Amino acid sequence: MDRADFIEQFEQARAAREMLVFFCSCEINYSGRAEAHLPKGDRLIVIKQDGVFLIHQPEKGNPINYLKSGAELALEKFEGHLLLKGKYLPNKEFLDVEIYTIYDLLRRKLEDGQQQTLMGNEADMSDAIRDNPAMIARDFKPVSREEHTKVGFLDVFGHDGKGNLVVVECKRYTAGLSAVSQLHRYVAKIKQLKGTNKVKGVLASPKITSNAEEMLKSYGFEWRHVIPPHRAARHDKKQQSLTNF
Amino acid sequence: MDRADFIEQFEQARAAREMLVFFCSCEINYSGRAEAHLPKGDRLIVIKQDGVFLIHQPEKGNPINYLKSGAELALEKFEGHLLLKGKYLPNKEFLDVEIYTIYDLLRRKLEDGQQQTLMGNEADMSDAIRDNPAMIARDFKPVSREEHTKVGFLDVFGHDGKGNLVVVECKRYTAGLSAVSQLHRYVAKIKQLKGTNKVKGVLASPKITSNAEEMLKSYGFEWRHVIPPHRAARHDKKQQSLTNF
DNA sequence: TACTACATCTCGCAT
DNA sequence: ATGCGAGGTGTAGTA
């Protein structure tokens, strides 16, 4: 594509707050949270209406370079080719793209005010536990869920019939060492805050690594095998009837 | 764009392993690690040569829906419109896109074998500490760096002149509670493994949150103010001469 | 703004 | 394949 034509398309797209995507050959320098350089190659460049700036290589899922929403963009001529300069000032980030060839370009105003509905996240898991406290223990009485406290963010918090406070940490996937550390932190804080040692820690997840289980036991905590609601719905019909009502 | 034309373009692009991007109006269902639904709206769809499948709304940086490299795609007619079905079998993930209108399309084989060079990551930071151990303590002697052990991944490990083992955990940015927990885990493991209590924990980062600092002190650990190399290069000329050699 | 934790996290590396 | 931790993580929610 002709250089002057590209400049015009770029300016019009930005002025109209349209989405702009193009294939090009380019070389990239990033400076900000790190320093990075990517030699010349073919890429897809996406510029969104809100300033989001994405550069994708032909493989792999993540953009190789990017700036966040709110970035400012400027296109200028530079030593016989084009220089597309992006900056995101809040983080002092700069993304400079030397563009050698523009192959193809699309631009369009996209209309989309929709939000995704999602189920099966960690909040849904703590919901299920609150509604079926027997998952944790016969005598477990949850009193709060997803609560931000001075202690931190407790997934489920309650007590049992023996005068123990109970802290439950949920993980949607295999719980590892960091999950145990997190639980340990919460339990320690609760002990300190309430001035008691009668605090139990429970980790609820569909799976746990052997190292994590060992560490969990060394702290005197317990693990409960809990399958997140949406997966229970597909893998276990009985579980579904428990968790979805 | 005409439906039959789109089908042909899609099939050709996939057969030739080209990158394919298009604007469309669509409705999306995802099932796999969670269950999600996104009502009809305008989006950018990107299909990469390796099967990466990205759907972007007109704002925000991350794709609203996606499948990873290796996904299989199939396009079929469905009740008067088109259905683009993606599946990623290793995780039993399914991404179905009902396409109502195709606005524009680009496809091209992109040639790019380049890799990004990056400096200023955590490894560079542990390098700098290894080369300037006085950053941690006058008498600190590093013996290893970036080492995978049974204990975990130790950024810098060494000893001081008083017979203490020293574990250093680096963070490129503000260290929070989880960084302290991580350090605590490493120190505990080292104590257990070496059968000694003479193990010191040091957290090195440019910043630390107040809660994290409090927790750090309660464990008897210490914090060192360390600026990652690439930022030191821009903010402190003296630091540059130390760290870049 | 600072702080915290989730994420359909992704990715690389080592076992 | 699993385990583990980094990431230019991004993003949401709260104090």
Secondary structure layout:
2 copies of one chain form a homodimer.
Chain A lengths: L2 H13 L3 E13 L3 E13 L5 E4 L8 E3 L4 E7 L2 E8 L4 E16 L8 E3 L2 H10 L9 E8 L4 E7 L5 E6 L6 H18 L4 E7 L4 H9 L3 E4 L3 H7 L1 H7 L2
Parallel strand pairs in A: 11-12, 12-13
Antiparallel strand pairs in A: 1-2, 1-7, 2-3, 3-4, 5-6, 6-7, 9-10, 10-11
Chain B binds a DNA duplex (15 and 15 nucleotides) through strand 4, helix 3 and helix 4.
Could you characterize what this model shows?
2 copies of one chain form a homodimer. In chain A, 26% of the residues lie in helices and 40% in strands. Chain A has 6 helices and 13 strands. In chain A, a hairpin with a 5-residue loop joins β10 (153-159) and β11. The longest helix of chain A has 18 residues, at 177-194. Chain A has a 7-stranded antiparallel sheet, with helices on one face. Chain A has helices at residues 3-15, 122-131, 177-194, 210-218, 229-235, 237-243; strands spanning 19-31, 35-47, 53-56, 65-67, 72-78, 81-88, 93-108, 117-119, 141-148, 153-159, 165-170, 199-205, 222-225. Chain A starts with a helix and ends with a helix. Chain A folds into 2 domains: 3-108, Protein Yojf, Chain: A, CATH 2.70.180; 122-234, Trna Endonuclease, Chain: A, domain 1 (3-Layer(aba) Sandwich), CATH 3.40.1350.10. With 245 residues, chain A is of the alpha+beta class. The radius of gyration of chain A is 26 Å and the shape is elongated. β8 of chain A pairs antiparallel with β2 of chain B, so a sheet runs across the interface. Chain B binds a DNA duplex (15 and 15 nucleotides) through β4, α3 and α4.
